[in-house]
Amino acid sequence: MVTMQRSALRKRVAVTGASGLIGSALVHSLRADGHDVLRLVRRPARTADEVEWDPKRLYVDAAGLVGVDAVVHLAGAGVGERRWNEAYKKEIRDSRVLSTTAVAQALASLADPPEALVCGTALGFYGDTGTRAVDESAPAGTGFLPSVCVEWEAAAAPAEEAGIRVTYARTGLVVARQGGAWGRLFPVFRAGLGGRMGDGRQYWSHISLHDEVAALRHLVDTPSLSGPVNLTAPEPVTNREVTAAMGRVLRRPTLFTVPAPALKVVLGDFAQDVLGSQRVLPGRLLETGFDFAFPTIDDSIRAALH
């Protein structure tokens, strides 16, 4: 296994979404390597490593961010947490756009702003790409998630205008058993009830949790990287191939199929994205020498079990 890349210099890094799946893993990784980490919390700060913020009010205690070298912004309502209706779609949009605006404005207000802002966004930017492979040069797609992603990234403009290097970490489906969309799949497949969704031909661009954290740190530590960067493994696979891999690794049958109409009943408008196809490649990660520890879907699933 390739070891996680490490910065030679101790850094002070602030993280939003620090209690989430990716954020908690990132905080653990940074602290394990001796970096100082500040967590943004939605209540008064209780310890020296906390900074208060309230994204709905566009408030960040900017004084708490003085002296940070980088900010990794990962906050946002989970797209797969609840059935989509108009109210939840508004929450998905506002939780991303307002929080990014709050962070960017706070950083821009500092007399000595940090070197870097890594703004976590999503592959949803590209919409449904079908079987066509795309990289960071592709334009935004159409539909709800692409429109959210465009607003989300645009909200970081105050930080860019203040001279901060901003990268947009467009993340794929994170393979982890602790949470997220994949965390819901593991119990189903372990029970022998897993199967393809719809016709199974749609591409799922995935990344292991280990590589997601390593890639975020790569964005913090690589001065040449700004703008969009796809955080996804180099070998996108179809839902049918994901299903087969889950069966192989977990040694369970994968006989069931969830038909498209059933997904629409359970997921609401989100079903369109589950059934949509995103074949996205990590062009800029590979160009800047990033090494994937778990490049294949089988590797990523095995890593999630340990």
Automatic annotation (TrEMBL):
<comment type="similarity">
    <text>Belongs to the NAD(P)-dependent epimerase/dehydratase family. SDR39U1 subfamily.</text>
</comment>
<feature type="domain" description="DUF1731">
    <location>
        <begin position="258"/>
        <end position="303"/>
    </location>
</feature>
<protein>
    <submittedName>
        <fullName>TIGR01777 family oxidoreductase</fullName>
    </submittedName>
</protein>
<dbReference type="InterPro" id="IPR001509">
    <property type="entry name" value="Epimerase_deHydtase"/>
</dbReference>
<dbReference type="InterPro" id="IPR013549">
    <property type="entry name" value="DUF1731"/>
</dbReference>
<dbReference type="Pfam" id="PF08338">
    <property type="entry name" value="DUF1731"/>
</dbReference>
<dbReference type="Pfam" id="PF01370">
    <property type="entry name" value="Epimerase"/>
</dbReference>
<dbReference type="InterPro" id="IPR010099">
    <property type="entry name" value="SDR39U1"/>
</dbReference>
<feature type="domain" description="NAD-dependent epimerase/dehydratase">
    <location>
        <begin position="13"/>
        <end position="223"/>
    </location>
</feature>
<dbReference type="InterPro" id="IPR036291">
    <property type="entry name" value="NAD(P)-bd_dom_sf"/>
</dbReference>
